[in-house]
Amino acid sequence: MAIFKGAGVAIATPMKENLEVNYDKLDEMLEEQIAGGTDAIVICGTTGESATMTEEEHAATIRFAIERVNHRIPVIAGTGSNCTRTAIQLSKEAQEDGADGILLVTPYYNKATQNGLIAHYTAICNEVNIPAILYNVPSRTGCGLQPQTVATLVKDVENIVGIKEASGNISTVAQIMHLCDGNVDLYSGNDDQVVPLLALGGKGVISVLSNVAPRETHDMVMKFLEGDVKGSLDIQLKYMDVIHNLFSEVNPIPAKRAVAEMGYCKNIVDVYYGGSEEEWKEMYIGSDNEYLKNATLHFNSTALPTAEFSVITEEDKVYVKNISEISGSIAVITTKYNDGILLDIQVERMIMLPSEEKYLFIPKNGRIFIWNSLKGMKPLSNEL
Asked: In Å, how far are 172, 210, 217, 219, 225 from 234, measured between CA atoms?
């Protein structure tokens, strides 16, 4: 039996300014996810920043989530590591704390062979009894699970029951399902491929999108599983732009920014929505969403307001400040020259909160160009 069917949120881990885990905010997020229809909590995965936590923080965060969720929905603990011993220890602690399952990413950096991966996963899973989900994301780890390796592990290791497949390769996924003869619970690890993987026999998705749209992600999966393929596909396509934006920078940066702005910005004044009022009412935003109660809603908007910035050039740096009451982004182009010949050019997009300020340092023999809109190509500053 699958640990869960539907959408499991790869929940972000909120931090305080001193970089400690913010358990009060995490508690709020867990409650919002459950109220929003999420089918499982996946704690301390990639989006949860497990790779940057100490082992103590990692274990404590898993324990907190298990205690707060209290069996209302499954909690799956991300306990993978590039160190087999560490993964075993985290997995045993998660089991003792009451986790419903564990998620085991491939050991990053070490670049294990396929036989090495089999040995790694077998060693971990022999130390625990709870179900384990393999996590294949070679773009992040530099180490991929081959279909035959997955089939061998599923056949030979009793408590390996599923795989989160984030390779992006549909042919690989199809081969996994073929070799496993359907005896593996498949979860999409890419929000933009939920429907395709469900069509190959998937049980659901372990989702970044669920951080900001738990109800819709749940519905996307359940509609498909209940036979409403078109309804599922409609949701998949509707949220493609949102999904793209959630991966516009390295995960979890955009997801955490979105969670912060949607859930914890208490002074939202205006909301600009491209659809009609009727379409807005159909979306699940939470009946008690205090952050939207006093906002002015603008329907059928074709253009969003643009933030304004002040730019001051100093001797070796540029001072930029968002002087608006809304967040905005700037494009920063940094160039380097030698005897008038362009040697290097770098382009970076920076998101700036209201009143946020930054110093950008001008490279030696270089210039900086700053735009707040690439549409008109009118720079805020190019006299540098």
From this structure: 25, 16, 12, 11, 14
C-alpha span between 280 and 56 (Å, rounded): 43
Handedness of CA 61, 67, 73, 77 (dihedral sign): positive
Other C-beta atoms lying within 10 Å of the C-beta of residue 95:
18
Share of the chain residues as helix, strand and coil, in percent rounded to the nearest 5? 35, 25, 40
Amino acid at 274: G
Query: How far is it, in rounded angstroms, from Cα 373 to Cα 328?
Result: 10
> What is the spatial distance between Cα 52 and Cα 48, in angstroms, rounded to a whole number?
9
Q: How many residues does the chain have?
A: 384
225-261 per-position pLDDT tens digit: 999 999 999 999 999 989 988 887 788 888 887 887 6
Q: Which residues of the chain have pLDDT under 70?
A: 261-275, 279-295, 301-305, 349, 351, 372-384
* Contact (CB, 8 A) for 102 and 91: yes
3-state secondary structure of 377: coil
Nearest to 30 by CA among 15, 17, 12, 46: 12
Catalytic residue selected from 25, 92, 109, 164: 164
Note whether 273 and 301 are within 8 A (CB).
Answer: yes
Are 264 and 26 within 8 A, CB to CB? no
Q: Which of 121, 135, 187, 239 is catalytic?
A: 135
Long-range Cβ pairs for the range 83-88 (8 Å, 24+): 83/107, 84/120, 84/123, 84/124, 86/55, 87/120, 87/124, 88/123, 88/124, 88/127
Give, in order, the Cα–Cα distances in Å from 304 to each of 64, 204, 300.
39, 34, 11
Nearest-CA neighbor of 162 among 144, 172, 176, 148?
176
172-185 confidence digits (pLDDT tens): 999 999 999 989 99
What DSSP state is assigned to residue 192?
G
* DSSP-based three-state secondary structure for 235: helix
The whole-angstrom separation of Cα 207 and Cα 47 is 9
Q: Let me know if 164 is a catalytic residue.
A: yes
Active site residue 359: no
Cα separation, 238 vs 226, in Å, equals 19
